[in-house]
Each structure stands twice: as C-alpha cells, then as structure tokens.
Amino acid sequence: MKTILVTGATAGFGAAFARRFVRDGHRVIATGRRVERLEALAKELGENLLPAPLDVTDANSVAGFLDTLPEAWRRIDVLVNNAGLALGLSPAWEADLADWDRMIATNISGLVHMTRAILPGMVERDDGVILNLGSVAGEYPYPGGHVYGGTKAFVRQFSLNLRADLVGKNIRVTDIEPGMVGGSEFSQVRFHGDEAKAAAVYAGITPLNPDDIAEAASWIVSLPKHMNINRIEMMPTCQASGPFAVKRD
C-alpha cells in the first residue's frame, strides 16, 4: 500500500485518480479548495481517503502542509501534481491578464511549490513517484492557447529536469500529457461557466475521459522502481496534430 497525495482532487482527473488509487489498494490524501467535495469523496471511498483542504497557490500553506497531516500519513510515496486549469481562449492581445496570472500561479507555481515540499522526503528514503499533469498543449500550439500552452511546456521541461537531478535515485518522474478529455470541468472553467461553449468543444466526438488518464497513472505507479516513463502523450482517436497554419494573400 502506498500513500498517494493528489492535488486538485475535488473533480475531474483528481477525483478519478483518488477513486482508482483507492481501488488499487492504496490510500489517498485528497487536496483541493472545495471542502464539501473532499468530504463527499471521503464518504464515498472510506478510511483510505484523507480529505485535506489546500490551495496550491498559497505558498505558505503548501510549505507547512505536511505538518498538518496526521503523523501516519506524512510519508508520501506518490505525489500527483494534478491541480491546474485553462482560462479563456481569446487571442493574446484580448486575453484577461488576471486569467494569465491565475494559470501561472496554479499550473506552475503551485506545482513547483508542492514538489519542493514533498521531494526531500522522497530523496531521504530514495523512493518515490511524481506524476505531473501536463498537456498536449505543451507540445502543439493552437490559437488561444498562449499562456496555458506555455505553462504546460514548463511542466514538461520541469519534469525532465527533475529526472536529470534525480538520476541514479529510485525516484520516478512522469509528465502525463492528455489531449482532449471530456467528463471533467476543464472546459466549463476555461469558459467561465458558459455551458454552451463548453459543450461545443466535445460535440460530435468521443474524447478521452478522466478514468482513461487514471488508468495510465495506475500503470505508471505499478512499475518497478528502476523503470521511469519520462512522458506519456495521450489523445483520443478523433484527435491528431495538424499541419502548419499558413495565411495567404
């Protein structure tokens, strides 16, 4: 049994990770800002899930987070840096600067602060797994993806550089990079609650779903200590990278 810390566990990928890892026989520390959702998840999954409210954008809370946990839960075997979001799809010159700042605070600062808080214990024990949630947006550009894609490119490079620091240690780091995933709040959040716009993203297609991403995470965690998956890119069969855009007169 491993102790697995999942950030952003109140919905979507995070909730799917929590359910899958508990089903796999592990115990999960589920973090997020929406306390009532964490409590509902704990009621659903039982004693192997510990709800632990946390806002990853609050650096002071993250730094002291381990000390707030019951002592028996403080050894973190797996860190899942899942908390993240996309906001807006307007062209860069029309984008809301507050949206940019929030994506950077959550997708980059929150991830690195959580990693810095948990990694020393893994290094001391020479054992651990870090799963970072990236995106195909960190590899393939698209209109309106500017800062979101930039934050996910950071996730990829940060993950690879962690491995460079950790070479020779039994600490594995993987950047999981999904493409289109339905069944989460991702698009509702991106469009600030506009349900029609969110639904249009997935109209007429069969996207991946959060359980598909949790399946990949479960497999990675189950691998032997000497085997590291640097990055895993996932898309539904209805999606692929496209040709370069060319504007002609």
Describe the structure.
This protein is α/β, with parallel strands linked by helices. It has a single domain, classed as NAD(P)-binding Rossmann-like Domain (Rossmann fold, 3-Layer(aba) Sandwich). Helices cover 43% and strands 15% of the residues. The chain contains 9 helices and 7 strands, in the order βαβαβααβαβαβαααβ. It has a 7-stranded parallel sheet with strand order 3-2-1-4-5-6-7, with helices on both faces. Helix 1 (12-23) crosses helix 9 (210-222). It is globular and about 65 Å long. It starts with a strand and ends in a 15-residue tail after the last strand. 35% of the residues are buried.
Provide keyphrases for this structure:
249 residues, Rossmann fold
Secondary-structure map with pairings?
Elements lengths: L2 E4 L5 H12 L3 E6 L2 H11 L3 E5 L5 H5 L1 H4 L9 E4 L15 H29 L2 E6 L12 H21 L4 E8 L7 H5 L4 H7 L8 H13 L8 E4 L15
Strand content: 5-15%
Summarize the amount of helix as a percent range: 40-55%
Q: Can you tell me the CATH architecture?
A: 3-Layer(aba) Sandwich
Give the overall shape, derived from the CA principal axes: globular
Number of helices, counting only DSSP H or I runs of 4 residues or more = 9
* N-to-C order of helices and strands: EHEHEHHEHEHEHHHE
**Number of DSSP E strands:** 7
For the record, the count of structural domains works out to 1
Radius of gyration: 18 Å
Structural class call reads alpha/beta
As laid out across the biggest beta sheet, the strand order is: 3-2-1-4-5-6-7
Instruction: State the CATH class.
Output: Alpha Beta
The averaged pLDDT comes out at 95
What CATH calls the topology is Rossmann fold
Which residues sit in consecutive blocks of at least 5 with pLDDT less than 50?
none
